[in-house]
Amino acid sequence: MSLNIKDNEVDIVIAALRSDLTAFMEKWRPFFSRFHLIIIKDPDMEEDLQIPPGFDHQVFTKSDMAQILGATSINFSGHSCRYFGYLISRKKYIISIDDDCLPARDNTGTLVDAVAQHIVNLKTPATPFFFNTLYDPFCKGADFVRGYPFSLRNGVECALSCGLWLNIADYDAPTQVVKPNERNVRYVDAVMTVPVRAMMPMSGINIGFNRELLGPALLPGLRLAGEGKQRWETMEDIWCGMCAKVVCDHLGLGVKSGLPYVWRGDGVDVKGAMESLKREWEGVKLMEEVAPFFQSVRLPRTAVTAEDCVIEMAAMVKEQLGPLNPVFAGAADAMLEWVKLWKAAGSQGA
Amino acid sequence: MAGSGSYGAVPSTPLLKDELDIVIPTIRNLDFLEMWRPFFQPYHLIIVQDGDPSKTIRVPEGFDYELYNRNDINRILGPKANCISFKDSACRCFGFLVSRKKYIFTIDDDCFVAKDPSDKEINALAQHIKNLLSPSTPFFFNTLYDPFCEGADFVRGYPFSLREGVPTAVSHGLWLNIPDYDAPTQLVKPLERNTRYVDAVLTIPKGTLFPMCGMNLAFNRELIGPAMYFGLMGDGQPIGRYDDMWAGWCSKVICDYLGLGVKTGLPYIWHSKASNPFANLKKEYNGIYWQEEIIPFFQSVTFPKECTTVQKCYIELSKQVKAKLGKLDSYFNKLADSMVAWIEAWNEFSASGKVGAAAAEVPNGPAKGK
């Protein structure tokens, strides 16, 4: 099926954690150039950003953020700066890719247009209520298999598209330390809907989402005490993804995982990973509480928007997880603060 | 035999050689076995011959096999033989019942060896064995698919306490070429062929149902065997082509309850024969409507804590089928009774190698060969 992607439907949000974005943007130029880019400079970064010409873009720095948001308890430093981009965007779809990722090549050697693939994922229905063994039934050359209930074949709207990574996979610090030389070389040619009530770790490295449907649920909630600039030192996207999945499951929206791939990183800094282990171990331990919590969350019927859902979840997080670790109480507060910011940003109009 | 270095070749000691049976239902012939010879020959075959028992099905030379026709099924099961379908590949589950092995691989006689994207022949049986011998991960979805696969692992954020996984009970393989579509889809897309090789195995999450296809399927008979009953289909029945799906839904809800895993994905086989869509439509017709009730039924199944074995779960399921689906059509009352007969036959055969009145030793056993 050919899908009409309107340029003015999409914002590409890039969190700049490195100052020189030239190589990154040149490689992505064929796929980025038709769209508007929102580039958020890590508030901790001193140097100016280097951005090649020819892109329709806006850059937001620490002072821009302060001016637009005023005082806020949300910490936008590091990878979390991208959430500012989500907040101020006015587009229907947002694609966000880490600045250490380049276009990947598929099994035919062709460069993958990750932006287009995310949009296809978001514009075609998801099928969370029954697993299709031939994966995405809306893909060309595929369909629903024998036995798939006909009443479920319309699917639901897809609100979140989670892509993958070739080369350096998104492993946590312990796994990086144990397998520093492992590279992900397996290109799995499939997109699939993550079934309802199935939990998954969302990697923020390569995602797309429907901002109109899901926006408030893509939130900077959980910040590790020792959070750093390396992906394996963060949990913000994992937490965000769990929230987003619960919201999607409750609202009857879909989450897809699989294509597109991006090519990630150069190598693994093993010593850095070992250092991170000492810090990120906190995140690993927290997941043991986080997972059962999200698996048991049941939102009330009165929660009919993503905002409503986030507010309800924030209260549950405070009540059930708050007592276990102050980081969770902080997350609950951040979630509520986020909704406030979201409402304020929304009321400023398009 | 091909060298053990190349992918897809048979290793010098085939894995699970004495612990796995290959069950093949057939009504035509077994010519397809020639292509599978390098991969299947070390293993014992159980052939279930459907249709006219007076017809002789020739098994290619060199295979070690047992062959059962309808007369054998009637003799061995006695009155309980009614639970085994006639004129439908659902009869394959008879082979599951009489097997003595821990693992079963079942394949249709129109399925051939497929090739992977590098043009190497795929040893589907070896892949199924890999799937069954490595854990499943039903409680949390791993976005990198099978974490136990070479070159993969659990992604960041996957809870460590869930990384051991659970035992795998079912390995569901896929098909290149003729896809497993229902009749309406076949009618709309008669020329569609599945050409996409998706290089992944993944665990189907707990609480999620799927349509299981019996064409290329393996399972741990000790863990889930009794739930692999393929129902009442074919001759004299109001429904067909729902046998494997029925077994799949029953076994999935039981696996979910008992903490066992179900995998889907690799291996691929090459499905060569497109069945007649008009004939299929007649068989599936009732199923298409009934399914709309059947699916919510399975989605809401719960088991009381007394159900500690597969058999107990299955008997409980049969009661719920009768209570909740019986009002949909009287077929489900018959089906529920057959489910009970199946479990009774399974238990009796497991214990003594005999079922009910057919307990007396008979001089002519099933047709055997090597």
Automatic annotation (TrEMBL), chain A:
<keyword id="KW-0325">Glycoprotein</keyword>
<keyword id="KW-0333">Golgi apparatus</keyword>
<dbReference type="GO" id="GO:0071555">
    <property type="term" value="P:cell wall organization"/>
</dbReference>
<comment type="function">
    <text>Probable UDP-L-arabinose mutase involved in the biosynthesis of cell wall non-cellulosic polysaccharides.</text>
</comment>
<dbReference type="GO" id="GO:0005794">
    <property type="term" value="C:Golgi apparatus"/>
</dbReference>
<keyword id="KW-0961">Cell wall biogenesis/degradation</keyword>
<comment type="similarity">
    <text>Belongs to the RGP family.</text>
</comment>
<dbReference type="InterPro" id="IPR037595">
    <property type="entry name" value="RGP_fam"/>
</dbReference>
<dbReference type="GO" id="GO:0005829">
    <property type="term" value="C:cytosol"/>
</dbReference>
<dbReference type="Pfam" id="PF03214">
    <property type="entry name" value="RGP"/>
</dbReference>
<feature type="site" description="Required for activity">
    <location>
        <position position="153"/>
    </location>
</feature>
<feature type="site" description="Required for activity">
    <location>
        <position position="146"/>
    </location>
</feature>
<feature type="glycosylation site" description="N-linked (Glc...) arginine">
    <location>
        <position position="146"/>
    </location>
</feature>
<dbReference type="InterPro" id="IPR004901">
    <property type="entry name" value="RGP"/>
</dbReference>
<dbReference type="GO" id="GO:0009506">
    <property type="term" value="C:plasmodesma"/>
</dbReference>
<dbReference type="GO" id="GO:0071669">
    <property type="term" value="P:plant-type cell wall organization or biogenesis"/>
</dbReference>
<protein>
    <recommendedName>
        <fullName>UDP-arabinopyranose mutase</fullName>
        <ecNumber>5.4.99.30</ecNumber>
    </recommendedName>
</protein>
<dbReference type="GO" id="GO:0052691">
    <property type="term" value="F:UDP-arabinopyranose mutase activity"/>
</dbReference>
<dbReference type="GO" id="GO:0033356">
    <property type="term" value="P:UDP-L-arabinose metabolic process"/>
</dbReference>
TrEMBL record, chain B:
<protein>
    <recommendedName>
        <fullName>UDP-arabinopyranose mutase</fullName>
        <ecNumber>5.4.99.30</ecNumber>
    </recommendedName>
</protein>
<dbReference type="GO" id="GO:0071555">
    <property type="term" value="P:cell wall organization"/>
</dbReference>
<feature type="site" description="Required for activity">
    <location>
        <position position="156"/>
    </location>
</feature>
<dbReference type="GO" id="GO:0071669">
    <property type="term" value="P:plant-type cell wall organization or biogenesis"/>
</dbReference>
<dbReference type="GO" id="GO:0005794">
    <property type="term" value="C:Golgi apparatus"/>
</dbReference>
<dbReference type="Pfam" id="PF03214">
    <property type="entry name" value="RGP"/>
</dbReference>
<keyword id="KW-0333">Golgi apparatus</keyword>
<comment type="similarity">
    <text>Belongs to the RGP family.</text>
</comment>
<dbReference type="InterPro" id="IPR029044">
    <property type="entry name" value="Nucleotide-diphossugar_trans"/>
</dbReference>
<keyword id="KW-0413">Isomerase</keyword>
<comment type="function">
    <text>Probable UDP-L-arabinose mutase involved in the biosynthesis of cell wall non-cellulosic polysaccharides.</text>
</comment>
<keyword id="KW-0961">Cell wall biogenesis/degradation</keyword>
<feature type="glycosylation site" description="N-linked (Glc...) arginine">
    <location>
        <position position="156"/>
    </location>
</feature>
<feature type="site" description="Required for activity">
    <location>
        <position position="163"/>
    </location>
</feature>
<dbReference type="GO" id="GO:0005829">
    <property type="term" value="C:cytosol"/>
</dbReference>
<dbReference type="GO" id="GO:0052691">
    <property type="term" value="F:UDP-arabinopyranose mutase activity"/>
</dbReference>
<keyword id="KW-0325">Glycoprotein</keyword>
<dbReference type="InterPro" id="IPR037595">
    <property type="entry name" value="RGP_fam"/>
</dbReference>
<dbReference type="InterPro" id="IPR004901">
    <property type="entry name" value="RGP"/>
</dbReference>
<dbReference type="GO" id="GO:0033356">
    <property type="term" value="P:UDP-L-arabinose metabolic process"/>
</dbReference>
